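Model the whole thing, not chain by chain.
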Amino acid sequence: MTDSKKSVSATLAAATCSLLGSAPTAPVQAQEEPSWDFNTALLYYGEDNDRVQDLSLNILGKRYFVDDRALTLGLTVDTLTGATPNGAIRQGVPQTFTRPSGSSAYTIPASELPLDDTFKDTRVALSAAWEQPLGRLWKTGVGFSGSFEYDYTHLGLNGSLSRDFNQRNTTVSAGLAVARDEWDPVGGTPIPFSPMLDVGDIGNKTGTETKDVIDAVLGVTQVISRNLLVQVNYSFSNSSGYLTDPYKFLSLVDGVTGDTITRVPAPGAEGPSHEFRFERRPDDRTKHSLYTQAKYYMGGKVLDASYRYMTDDWEIDSHTLDLRLRWPLGERSYVEPHLRFYTQSEADFYTISLVDGVELPAFASADYRLGNFDAITAGLKYGWKTRSGSEMSVRAELYRQSGTIPGELLIGNQVGRETYPDLDAIILQFSYQFGW
Amino acid sequence: MNKPLLASFGIATLLALASGCSTMGVEPWERDILARDDMQLTADPVEAAIDDHIYFSKEASSGGRGFGGGGCGCN
Amino acid sequence: MVDREPARSVSVAAGQDCLVGRFDAMASPCEILIESDDRDEAARLTRIAADEAWRIEDKFSRYRPGNIVARINASRAEAVEVDEETAALLDFAATLHALSNGRFDITSGALREVWTFDGGDGLPDPQAVRNVLLRVGWEKATWRRPFFTVQAGMQIDLGGIGKEYAVDRVAGMLRDAAICSTVVNFGGDLAVTRAPRERRAWRVGIEPVYAHEGRGDTVLEIQTGALATSGDARRYLVKDGIRYSHILDPRNGWPVEGAPRSVTVAADTCTQAGMLSTLAMLEGYNAEAFLDGEGVKYWCRR
């Protein structure tokens, strides 16, 4: 073929046109299948009242190899800013607190919920997982997870095994995960129940602390019919070690008035205006969960419903009901409304304040996340497929947490003044899935 | 609820399901709908991980469908 | 292969979220992938495809007594008047002969008298090949539309164009017959009638050249256009460790040297894809260079 470039194709195209009696209707579009499937998402989470705001980028890449073996790699980067309740109760006067770092103090106006806005944190999380079939009916997987922030490190390993029965209509699976997490709090770990000290005084701070976690899951997935799939999982989780939040504390109050005992910092120093004691949680926690999920296809629409019951030895019980309905719009897009209902009962050591002059309880925490509350999430997602075959979606959700403080925990002036720090948050997510 | 009782209840439910399920299901050629992307139990793993992380940070419960990812020092 | 007469039946079954119509034609398993869940429609389209494939097979196969090819091959140097469709194919063959500098030649049918590619080591005697070569050569035939005259003993063989032509003919008919996307796949030579709407693309595997390669298929995605593969996966000879491809150079009667094991080309029509992959094989060692020079997408295995 000594013809100049492309002249063979051109002559061939003309000859073919004559042979077939018509020109091709569309130029050829063919390529090798992309090796990697990427699933990426950009997330904004923002609470009202200057509380926590989070922006994160999540990337998951999956590559299939021969025989259904697959490698999944994940990266998440998120930045957290904003304030969070520090555990102290409101007072009719301004309150001053020493920051966790011990290097300065901050003051909260009278009657306001005390929030600590120290936290501007960036976290990077990585994960890697390998899954592969073992023979025809078994499947196995192993994975690694790691998460890194300036004051917290998590490292974990997990493994799973599953087997199909009944012509793959039934799958039984088991998984185990172990993790070692380490706290290296800013300013050191406070001794539990020790008082909050003046700025510059780190007498009650010690070094790093660790926590070990074991998770085990046993599950059954069952095809009920051509349109219905159901899964039931039982999970067991045990955490041991340092389970306390080093940045949270409780107000030490008068047993009659319920007001926080006042305090004067050392001469020439800045420090707390009132008496606060760092919280103390047990060094062990065991959780049991029963989770069930169903996916039901109804003529183009898909309903995803799940329920989870959780109970633990901190006396916390929770129920979660999650409902999603994917509703196709035309051939290339869909809307998906979402509703989630959540309720939990408080931990047995959850309390609002510590009473001065009375023997301290074994454990205590005023962290609202261990309290008694209900939460609702309501959201809408819209997704579409682009011409090139990628998928995009946007979702907007509202999350509202509203709780109650058990009456017996409120003392004197706290009644009527102290309320559960209700939370309103917005969740916005843009996601993009593509092959490469 | 009594914890060991709950654990036994959980495992018993699973075993009952697993054994009672031997006659339920579909033929291999009837799996067309089940093969759809939107019929997978975790249709969007990134969104599931995001939600798990948000609720783990704001509530006292976590997980359920499995695990993977891990903890954080979330406030 | 002459003994095989598969039953001419058509079936429709469910595929990977599409319907698949199947039948046998031109010594290949043929399938029509249909992006629809209407079985009646699928059956109708498969019927259209099968009828056209069998019509072309009956008309142009060298194994059917009495058809136009048989009449030309038995014509003993007398002019044979051909119809419009055959004339178009002969025009095409003429263009390809010139374009390939003689490597592509439909008058090379006589070579199968001395070459049998059965995986064995039966190489023909060079003198026998030279003798047969006397009855091979487009320049020895006379094509003056609509009359075609071949030398006595010359055998024409449209096997190199027939299947791809059939794919394009069927694709054209299905494009007119239905609005859903379909793939016309005759044993690996395929064309897409229109871009699919419910999926990103149709997924096609390029067969591994050796059976033991297992599931290491390369998977291609195709939205529009066609794919054709030239290869010697099943038809070759091996002697003294040298593998002889079944692609013969009609200018010397011997297999092309240095041909790749298989070449898959993507082009706008199956005919173009098939011709480019055949021309590439005929280039032997220069197959990839040729295709690079033409700017076409291809996948080559050596």
